[in-house]
Structures are given as structure tokens and as C-alpha cells.
Amino acid sequence: MDLSAINPVLLIASLMVAATPILLAAIGELVVEKAGVLNLGVEGMMIIGAIGGFAITVETGSPWLGFIASAACGAVFSLLFVLLTQVAQANQVASGLALTLFGLGLSALLGQSYVGIKPPQMGKLEIPFLSDLPVIGPILFGHDPILYIGIALTAGVWALLKYSRVGLVLRAVGENHDAAHALGYKVVRIRILAIMFGGACAGLGGAYISLIRVPQWTEGMTAGVGWIALALVVFSSWKPWRALLGAYLFGGITVVQLNLQAAGVAIPVEYLAMSPYVITIIVLVILSADKSSAPAALGRNFHASR
Description:
The chain is mainly α.
């Protein structure tokens, strides 16, 4: 066992990279749940975004086009959930699980011809002077643009929910859709837009895994990140900045256990690999008794005829 081989600066920098796909998916799902919709299909939308973004990047040679395509793929795939829950009024939990299973199967089919291919790399955003600072530079100013977009998206969602009329309407729909409808708001339309936003964010998170974190395509490569993102929304009490901190916590646990494996720590690899999920379960158990922050209409379908 050689813990001296673990570089703290690289560890923290890697933590931020590992946290980004979780953060992107969680912020999108947070907006969806603020609108009163529970979409358990995050994992499915992420894996569709992963293969969609990977394929477009390989075919065009442009990672930027790949990320745009991944967001589009996630948003379009989320329309299946819209069709089931907002049009057919199906159960949201069952529909979300079906979306995940379908996404995993479809991505495996679409990705068969991309196994073993390395995609073009997205360059890092080098900031003059700041990137050259010791310790702070590599940690904060030597990352890819999508990582900073994830942080900016968190700030934007926080400001939108807290200070804008759009955020007020979104929260009203999530708290009491009947009252929002009585005030003249288009509840179904608002929820559809929220679901598509969540799908786009999940698609971006999936593409981040296949294009930056692990630049290759592997079947099922999201490996439960979507489920951690769902747990993270609860952990954050539906608050964007807490979601950011939670993503860094879960990402940190993932990076630490990988470094401990590489250092040869005398703990079975299986225990280390399952540690992020164990922490997720523990956090959920601790916070499950506090539902005061959850939108009151979460998981309930809206019936316009009522």
C-alpha cells in the first residue's frame, strides 16, 4: 500500500470532473421535480445522450456538435416520458423505469459499431495567468468548458427559481397544479418544457462521461450515475447549490475509492467500488424523514377536466 502516490491536487481536480455528469443530470431533474414531475428515467436519458453525443463527435470530428447533439437526444428521448405521463396519464414511477430500461437497450444497439473507437478530444479552457497558479491553477482553472457550463447552469437555475417569474410559476405548478391551472397557467405545457430541459441536461451529463471522463463508448457506461443524480436531488432538498455540493461529495467518493484501489489499500475492491452507492443510501435514509422541501404535487398527474 503506497498512499504517497496519491497527488492531492490531481485528486481534487479529478473530483470536479467526476462530479460534473452527476451535477448536470441532477440540476435537470431538480427542475423537473420542481414542476411536480418525478422522472426516474434519468439513467436512460443519460445513456442515450452518451451514445448520441459520442456518435456525432466521431462522425463530425467536433466535440461541441457532439454535446449539442447529446442535449437534443436527451430532450427528444424525454418526449417518450411526456407521451406516457402527460398525454396518456400513466404512472410516473413506472414510466420512468420503462424509459431507463428502454434507453439502456437502445443505446446498446446503437453503440455496437462504436466500441473501441476513440473520439476527438475537447481542449481544456486555459485562462491566462490563472491557469499557471500553483495548486489553485490546476484545480480551478485547467478544465474543459463543459465543467464550467455545469457550474454556470447551477447558478442560472438557482437565480431563475429564486428571482424570476418563470421560477415562481414553475414552483406554483409543482406545489398545487390545480390552483396554477385556475390562475390560467398551462400546467401540462410547463411540465413538458421542464421534462425536456431535464432530458437535455441528462443527455449532456451522459455525453460528458463518454467524451471527457471516459473518452470511449462502452455499453451501460453510465453505471448508475443517473440513480445517484436522482438521490442527489433529495439530498439537496431541491436546492441547486446543495446539489452542487452533493455532486462534489459523491464525485469525491468515487475518485477516492479509485485512488485507493490504485494504491493497493487492503480493502476488497468490491467494497470500494460500492462505497458511492452505500453513501447514497445512507444519505437517503437520513433525509427521508424530511419531506418539507419536496414539491407538494410531486409525482401526481394533472387532470385538466377536474
